[in-house]
């Protein structure tokens, strides 16, 4: 039992994925000192229904100078963020001298479109090298974490923000109270706080347990976000289901009474209540389901090894650290992982130390099977790697269950 990071209620643990490394810590060789480990366990608050990690990893260990994720690396995500930016430009950023603040602006994939439209903007991005990429495009970026003190400082120098936005960021922040107080200080009276993050409903339905890793501290539902917003004088007014990253929800929050809640919000909350997303019985069934996935995936990989088949993996994603370490998948079962990120190439996956190789290795050394860790980009990847299938290669997926694509 621990204390909820939102409402101070009691949090009941329902899942323990064991000792895990930092999901984005890629060592250059095995056995080097400094591989930080923590217990990856999840619980649900009995009071506000917020699902959250039981143990917090210090933020400086995750988001730092060498943070290796770049949002612009996926054409699908580029299109998604460009569309989101255009929507803001057509709706919320239409007044005189509009201003948008992005929490976790990464390499500026969203703010570039805002900047090109001549709209005032500011990104918060503590990961140094990705922030530098954004600045090189002419974007205004602070190398800070977004919290109450920094938000007050921005308000004093810039005035109110019409939009405060975060994508795949707010769920990363254990100190959600400070974030909401910062939003309270910075958001215009009629402004909106919009964020999109992995949705607990999709994680349970798809059994995508690899969405659980160090960076994802909270697993939101409309019901839990509604309760969190209300604690700070805000109101959840709209929700939108999104297909990206394996299933997300975009939440729109305004000051209490400033805007009318949508019918989409009422529908989603009714659906969540009917599905019992925060019910311990449902959550424990999820645990049994992912134990089956682990057993089936390891069983398949061992059988293929015994048959003399070659197996590699595709995408040294943050979430793949959860899969490999929970399942005990190392280079004995998966020879190497292909990844497009130069900073990861030539290094080893966290914990299990599978070698990471560049994309040309995937074509130069054809394997019999490829375990698709980046399953949320399956359509994009399979379209790009059609030669692999033509040469007889087959894809292994484990969401929502272990299967060989096309088999």
Automatic annotation (TrEMBL):
Residues 4-63 form the Methyltransferase putative zinc binding domain. The keyword Methyltransferase applies. InterPro entries: Methyltransf_Zn-bd_dom_put, Methyltransf_Zn-bd_dom_put_sf, MeTrfase_14, SAM-dependent_MTases_sf. One of its GO terms (biological process) is methylation. GO terms for molecular function: methyltransferase activity. Residues 243-400 form the C-methyltransferase domain. Keywords: Methyltransferase, Transferase. Pfam families: Methyltransf_13 (PF08421), Methyltransf_14 (PF08484), Methyltransf_23 (PF13489). The keyword Transferase applies. SUPFAM superfamilies: S-adenosyl-L-methionine-dependent methyltransferases. It comes from the Bacteria. PANTHER family: BLL5978 PROTEIN, TRANS-ACONITATE 2-METHYLTRANSFERASE-RELATED. This is Methyltransferase domain-containing protein. The lineage of its organism: Bacteria, Bacillati, Actinomycetota, Actinomycetes, Streptosporangiales.
